[in-house]
Amino acid sequence: MILEKFVLAAITTNPKKMPSGTAVFHCDSKEEMEKVAANLEAILDGIAHALTEDLYIIVKH
Amino acid sequence: MNEYTLPIVFGIAIGTLSRLFMLRTDYRQYPTYLHGKIIHVALGFIAAGLGTVAGPAIMEEEFTAITFLTLAASQFREVRNMERNTLTELDSYELVSRGKTYIEGIAIAFESRNYLVIFTSLVSTLAYLIFNIWAGLIAAIIAVIISHKLMSGGKLGDIVEIEYMEPRFEGAGLYVDNIYIMNIGLPERQKEVIRYGMGFILKPKNMNARSTIANLGQRQAVLHDLSTALGVYRDSGTPALVPLAKRDLDDGRVGVFVLPQERDIERAITVIGDVPTLENAIRMPSEKKSNEGSGAQ
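Output (C-alpha cells, whole complex):
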C-alpha cells in the first residue's frame, strides 16, 4: 500500500495540543522539537509542516 | 537492376537522411544516446522503405500494394508504445519526473516523425519516377522543409511572459510573489530553500495560454526541463526540496519554484521559454463557439 497525504507523526511542546490517532513526540523546547522533526523527516521520507508555533506534523506526500 | 532500382535506393536514402535530420539530442535527453539513436534510425529506414515502394506500386498500377502502408501505421503505433513504456519505466527514477503528459508528447513526436519520413520518401520517389533525379531532389528538399515545419511545435515562451521572483517565507508558508507554494516547518530547511531556491512567475498572454499552463502535465514539464538544464538540489528522501508549480486562481498566473544547482536567472528564463507546449496540454477555449444555440451540439 502506498500512503499519500498521510500524517505520519506529530511533534509538540504543548501537551494540550496532543492530537490523537497518530504517533506523538513530546518535546520540552522548540529546539528539541525542531531536531526531532528534522530527524523524523529524514527517517520517514515526509515533510515537516509547522501548523502552529508548538505543533509540527510529518506528512507523507 | 530494373528501372525502379535507382529511384527506390534514392527514396530510401532521402527518407533515412530526413530521419537523421529530425533526430535531435538536446538537454531534454531524448532520443538518448547511441543505442536509442540506432533504434530510431533503423525504424526511419523501414519507414523510408515503406514510403518508397508506394511510388513504383502506383506506376505499375498495383493499387492494392498501397494498402501495404497500413502496415506502417500499426508498425509505428508500436514505436509510440515502445517510447512510452521506456520513458514511463524510467520516470520513477528521475529526481524530478517528466510526467505522463510530457512522455505522451515525446511518444507522439516519434510516431509522427516516422510518418513524415514516409511522406518524404513517397514524394521524392514519385518526383524521380515521373520527372528525373533533379525533380526528385527538389521534391525531397521541399518535403524536408515541410517536415521540419510540421515537427516543431510551439514553445512556452510564445504564450507566457516569464519573470524572476525571489521566493520568500511568511511564517512557515513559502511564497513566490503572492502564490502560496508549500508549508516548510523546519527553520533549517527554510534557510536551505531561501539559499538555493529560485522563483518564476509565468504570466499567460491570453485565455488559451491560461488554460494551457494550468495543465498539471505542462507544469511538470517546466519543472523537469528546468531541473535537467540547471541541475537539481535534492536527493531521494528529501520531499521538502521538491520543485513545485502552483497556480494563482484569480488571474491564472503560475508560480514556479525550483532548487537548481546552478543559479543562473537568464539561463533559467531561456530554458522555461524553450519548454515545448505539450500537444496534450493545449487548450483553446477561445475556439469554442459559445454563441451557438443551447440545443446545438
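The mean pLDDT of chain A is 87.
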